[in-house]
Amino acid sequence: MGFFRRLLGGDKRRISDIPDELWAQALDEHPIVRALSAQQLSLLRIRTGEVLSRISIDTARGVDRSEELRLSVALQAALPVLELGVEWYRAVRTILLVPDEYETELTTVDEAGVVHEGVDTISGEMGHQQPVVLSVADVEASGWGEGYNVVIHEMAHVIDAADGEADGAPPLPPGMDSGHWGAVFAAARSDHERRVRRTEARIASRSGRAAGRAPVLDPYAAEGREEFFACSVELFFERPRRLKRAYPELFEELRSFFGIDPSGLSGE
Q1: Any residues with CB less than 8 A from the CB of 34 and at least 6 apart, and which?
Q2: Residues with Cβ < 8 Å from 205, sequence gap 6 or more?
C-alpha cells in the first residue's frame, strides 16, 4: 500500500534470513496463521524477517534469548502489518522481553479530567520513546487462537500511535471515513462497557445469572479508547469469527484497515 509508505517513510535495511526448519516450527506453534494462503505465508515470512532486521528483540536477566522465542515475537508482530507494511513500526527500536508479569506505576486521566495514580501488574506495555516490553510467559500464551495475544495487543498500540497519539484512531487510508470509524467504535465500546458493568454487578451481588450478554472483548477494553482499539485488534486476529458475530461493523472497519480478513485463520 503506497499510501502507508508515503505516510510513514521507507527503510531499506536487509531482511533477516529465517532458516526453513525454524520457520516451519514457528508456523506449527502459532495456530492463528494456519489458514493463511501460501502467498500470505510467503509475505508473512518477509514481514517477519523485516521485523527481525529493524527491531532489536532484547532479553532481561533470566530470559533465555533463544531464536525460537525471538521468531515467535517477530512472527506475531508481523501479522497485523502483513498488508500494511512494517513501516508502521518505525517508532519501535527495541522490544524487551522480561520473564513474567511485572508491577509498574500508572498515571491515568479519566474522561472527567481526574488524574489517577497507582500500581498495576501488567504483561506488556508500549511507552513513548521507550522499548515495547513483553512478558515471556504471556508471549508463550499468545498465538493459539484462544483470544489472548500480548504481542498483537502492544503492537496495536504502536499502530494506533502512528499519528502521534494512541487514541483508538490510527491514520486511515484513502477510502475510509474517519467519522464512520469513530461512530462504529464508539457504539461497540458503549455496548462493551454495558456488558462489563452488568458482569461486575452480578459478581458484586453474587446473584448468579447476569442480565444481558457477557463481554466478548477483554474487560480491560473498557479502560479507554486506546485499550478498546488494542483489545479489538487482538481479538480480530486471535478469534476473528467471535468478533465478527458480536460487532460486524467494527470487524468490517478493521478488515478494511488491515487489508485482510482473518475470519478463516483460526478454528473456532
Answers
A1: 27, 265, 266
A2: none
User: Minimal CA–CA distance to 236: which of 166, 153, 132?
Assistant: 153
pLDDT, tens digit, for every residue of 131-157? 899 999 999 999 999 999 999 999 999
Element (H, E) at 134: strand 132-135
- Going by C-alpha positions, the residue among 240, 244, 251, 255 that lies closest to residue 34 is 240
Only one residue has cell 496463521, namely 33
Helix axes 67-78, 20-28, angle to 10 degrees: 60
Q: What is the DSSP string of 77-118?
A: HHGGGTTT-GGGGTT--EEEEESS-EEEEEEEE-TTS-EEEE
Q: 225-249 burial by CB neighbour count: b if 16+ within 10 A, else e?
A: bbbbbbbbbbbbbbbbebbbebbee
Burial class (CB within 10 angstroms; exposed 0-12, middle 13-18, buried 19+) of 251? buried
> Cα–Cα distance between 184 and 186 in angstroms, integer?
6
Out of 1.20.120.1760, 3.40.50.2000, 2.60.40.1590, 3.40.390.10, select the CATH number for domain 2-264.
3.40.390.10
Cell 499502530 belongs to 159
Give the H/E segment covering residue 119: strand 115-122
Q: Which pTM was predicted?
A: 0.83
What residue spans define the domains of the chain? Answer: 2-264
Per-state percent for the chain, helix, strand, coil, to nearest 5: 55, 10, 35
Return the pLDDT at 247. 98
DSSP reduced 3-state for 125:
strand
